[in-house]
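Review box. Two proteins, two foldings.
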Amino acid sequence: MKLLTSVTCSALLLTQAISQAQETATKPESPETVAKALQLADIYKSVVRIEVATQVPDYKTPWNAGRFSGGTGTGFLIGKNKFMTNAHVVSDARRVLITMHGSSRKHAARVLHVAHDCDLALLEVEDFTPFEDLPHLEIGDVPALESQVRVIGYPVGGERISVTRGVVSRIDFRPYSHTRADSHLVVQIDAAINPGNSGGPVLQNGKVAGVAFQGLTSADNTGYMIPTPVVKRFLKDIEDGKYDHYVEIGTYEFELFNPAMRKVYGLGPDSPGVLITKVTPGSSADGILQPGDILTAIDGNTVDSSGNVVFAGERVNMNEIVERKFVGDTVKLNFIREGKEQTADVTLKTLPAARMYAIQYGQKPRYTIQGGLVFQPLNLNLYSAHKFNNPRVRRLFAGYLKDGIFQDRKDIIILTNVLEDPINSFVTSFEGNALASINDTKVTTLEQAHQLLNPEKTPEFFVLEFDGIDRPLILPGNQLKQANERVQRNYGVSKSHNLEN
């Protein structure tokens, strides 16, 4: 039976906590019930409200400061001056304030560590004294299916703490909405995760079973929490004082359900394995696996024909094995190549080029402007802001990682805007295209493009070639200084370039 209740704590927190712990209002309070209520009351005090003032970069006019906004979320104390929350709660933050339950005082805080790829962050307050006596929440285990959990936080609609009960309905490997590119283990519960709940603890038996982080808008009372394996991995990663990101094997797989395909690759009806269709150049598996291999096991865990493994008692995506490892760790792969079984140890590493497909936070847009032409490196932020419909740019974006384009072109430079001026008349048709070369020199990074557009000795002409366009864009060198001054004055461009994040 679906069990779902909601209760909001008032200033009389202890009285309500005792009431919640009772099975019914008519049953007498046992010593165990009172003790449990006292424990819950203490735990609630360690769940804090987070207010954030943000400044979101503007990728359409990158020289501007960006849009100011704000929001609220939840956090909880896990150690001395260590408050855990979601990365999306404090993304692009310019000011962070923490409020303790039952208090009106706002405490200035800062972000210690942030992991956007798994949507977790750790905060600290400037003065921890008021929090010294609060209990630290302990990280527990992954809750079992059909078991009950409590979601604690400060959802919109009120400033007081809210507690919602729900049942664990699914354990899965799903995308995390924060970056739009990363997938990890998630736990689904039949309790709504509303704005403001984000970053709050999901408790079971007095321990943290997960961190509330996103809901499902297409269904009622469906929310997701980040489970403790992801939380523990984040905490272990930052033990050395920095976050190193997730490692990746770098393979593309295809499920082997089709009987004809299985026969071609010599697999029986019940044989395990998925087909390796591509290996990212420079990735962990590059030079070890190759297209056409059948991957049958990872670290001794059999990979079925859908790419899943049974791990820690649950059937999950095979990448969960790699998820729990770190840079420099090894993973053992079993695979079939040309009908022969083989094994190999793969040393794992990160794949920085993969961040092309993830939304970036806390970074100023990079750009350079010359003669009213605005050039910016392609990433998901830029792609989303400009909604490029140029098929050539789309192919470059799609193949940046898969086809190894990043090995030759660290940055794909896009002419995103033409700030109209007499020097650049009749060139707007070049907007939205990728810059290929400047004066016959191939462009590979934004820094290089900026240097080529600003040489010590100005050439008579700047000849710019673009991918897929059979005519150049030409700017007269001797008119650029005056044109740049006009453009900056007419369009309020405070700075002609920013080459660093």
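Next protein.
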Amino acid sequence: MKFKTSINCSSCVAKVKPVLDGLVEKWDVDTENPDKILTVEGGDEESIVRALKKIGYQAQKIESKS
């Protein structure tokens, strides 16, 4: 799954790391992308969005174009 997020920098990544590590198998944030794309493997959309919101970040799922 891919999400457009408000995770802007390495400090933000450090803050979300323990939360995402507990929710998903693998994840990565492209902070160079203007949309700050979070890519995750495993977990479910609702839990990820809710957990990030709880610590002050927004995440919106990007629908795949297939």
